[in-house]
Amino acid sequence: MNTTECISTRRSIRKYKPDPVDHSLIDSIVSLASYSPSWKNTQITRYIAIEDSSLLREIAEKFTPDYNSKIISQAPMLIAVTLIKGRSGFERDGSFSTKKGDRWQMFDVGAACQTFCLAAKDKGLGTVIMGIFDEDGITELLHIPEDQELAALIAIGWPDIDPEIPKRKTVGDLLQYR
Q: Which of 25, 49, 32, 16 is nearest to 118 (CA)?
């Protein structure tokens, strides 16, 4: 699959086959995602692969809204994406480098999540990035260290649907030349 095909055919997958995802595939996807750009090459993104059914059930039932719970409860794996705090967007003395403050860290994690999802698509896997969840509850459940912050959840598995392409904005809507 070439890059253009991978980007244009990637979809948010919300229904998965129950088949497990081999660890070597996840290792390969994370290895590729490690090439994502980041502030001063800080590489702050970290991944926790959750495949234990009791943990998945607890996250789905206690820490996510119904629409995300339905996805998680039938996905074979969930990736908790975290970031190391206090590095992206900062100078060595701890001051912010720009007026965006620490928001660069979410920019970096977003780039890593997209790269992760494209790498998964290239391997035949489906993904959906979820941002609405009980951050404190999941952080405690997964024992995420204090120097890290939970940024996103990504359901991953073998797609059991092939969604249509959503309507796209035109280049004219998206681009200005000056």
A: 32
